[in-house]
């Protein structure tokens, strides 16, 4: 590994340490009460290093949620040949796992940021999570398991809207219930509808 690659790897490790520290602290106290200095102390870095990677706490928050696709890609690794319905559930359960790891307060702050920035991209179709879901749904269509009259694109949009709504309900209840069983219940309900109408 040459010097440039080592620097890139070191920068990634520092960013991850900052994000991990912020997530840990947000489980202990309100995000508003956590200072950049607190995050730096927990991550073992200087405030200068923080500002080298992030402009602000809000910037750190938004960039932290960009790692959702990396999280999803890791979760699906090795499952490329699995049944598409099982793979779709793995995708949705990994989404719940990511949200629960981040914690309801950080997820809430992320959505507040999105709502206050109308130009913010909702779900870029080129992102891994969107592409993986569409691939699963196209395969279920090819197997004759998708609801007749509905395209994989329509179902993907519907599922994203529904499960985003479930995440917001979880936020409104301040994470007082586990997210995964709720998503599983809804997913099983949708799976029954698809099978009955196929």
Strand and helix layout:
Layout: H1 3-28, H2 36-43, H3 47-53, H4 57-65, H5 68-76, H6 84-102, H7 104-115, H8 128-142, H9 152-172, H10 179-197
Helix pairs in contact: 1-2, 4-7, 5-6, 6-8, 6-10, 7-9, 8-9
How far is the first residue's CA from the last residue's CA? 53 Å
Based on CA inertia axes, which overall geometry fits?
Answer: globular
- Low-confidence stretches are none
Count of DSSP helices?
A: 10
Strand content: under 5%
Gyration radius over CA: 19 Å
Total strand segments: 0
pLDDT averaged over residues: 84
- The SSE string, one letter per element, is HHHHHHHHHH
Q: SS-based structural class? A: mainly alpha
Biggest sheet architecture = none
The helix content is over 70%
Output the keywords:
mainly alpha, 10 helices, 198 residues, single chain, globular
Q: Can you put this structure into words, describing what you see?
A:
The chain is mainly alpha-helical and 198 residues long. Helices cover 73% and strands 0% of the residues. The protein has helices spanning 3-28, 36-43, 47-53, 57-65, 68-76, 84-102, 104-115, 128-142, 152-172, 179-197. Helix 1 crosses helix 2, helix 4 (57-65) crosses helix 7 (104-115) and helix 6 (84-102) packs antiparallel against helix 8. The model has no long low-confidence stretch (mean pLDDT 84). Residues 35-54 bind DNA. This is TetR/AcrR family transcriptional regulator. Residues 12-72 form the HTH tetR-type domain.
Summarize the structure.
The chain is an all-alpha fold and 198 residues long.
